[in-house]
Amino acid sequence: MHDRTRDFESNLTMLTYPFVYLASQSPRRQELLRQLGAQYELLLPRPDEDAEALEAELPGEAADAYVQRVCVLKANAARARLLAGGHRAAPVLVADTTVTIDSLILGKPIHEEDAVAMLERLVGREHEVLTAIAVVAADGALLEPALSRSTVRFASVDRAALRRYAATGEPLGKAGAYGIQGRAAEFIERIDGSYSGIMGLPLFETAALLRVARVEF
């Protein structure tokens, strides 16, 4: 007797998808996905979700372990959101970025003074930017997450310049209190790694995962 279930499952693995759900509000990630040529639909947290709670650090947690753990948590939350909302089937893309120096994780500053304090820690030194990405395939399987690791060196910048930068509001909402694609570029002497990864979505790793998930782009 012909095994229709096996044929059905086989056909599922051959499906391709014209878009990916992006579970991020970041305009930079949206810009980078467009650069890649991938179509996307936003899949953002509902008002009743505590998205910030997912980013809480664990005591003694290393930055690379932290960013990958948070990324997986966000991926699972996005998958649950997809199922609860009755959306059509498609893979889901999630990313998380953190900045680390002196074994500390520098998250998003809560105000200008916080931003200046973070930036003062970075000036004249090198720090790491870690971006983890995860894709949940259309069948619900979490693909093996990828980690992009880059090194950034800040120039020696005086406090007045940092204050002027913080006053623009650009550092707020950004890990490490700066965006490489914005005015902070004037402070950066050198990078070693992925520019798109520092922005928040490493395109090489993203493209590889989207191909595995059979997203057309």
From TrEMBL:
Primary location: cytoplasm
Enzyme Commission numbers on file: 3.6.1.9
Swiss-Prot/TrEMBL cofactor(s): a divalent metal cation
Catalytic activities: UTP + H2O = UMP + diphosphate + H(+); dTTP + H2O = dTMP + diphosphate + H(+)
One cellular-component annotation, GO: cytoplasm
Alphabetical GO biological process terms: nucleotide metabolic process
Membrane spanning stretches: none
Biological function: Nucleoside triphosphate pyrophosphatase that hydrolyzes dTTP and UTP. May have a dual role in cell division arrest and in preventing the incorporation of modified nucleotides into cellular nucleic acids.
Keywords, in A-Z order: Cytoplasm, Hydrolase, Nucleotide metabolism
Protein name from the UniProt record: dTTP/UTP pyrophosphatase
Active site per UniProt: D96
Gene Ontology terms, MF aspect: dTTP diphosphatase activity; UTP diphosphatase activity
Pfam name, any one: Maf
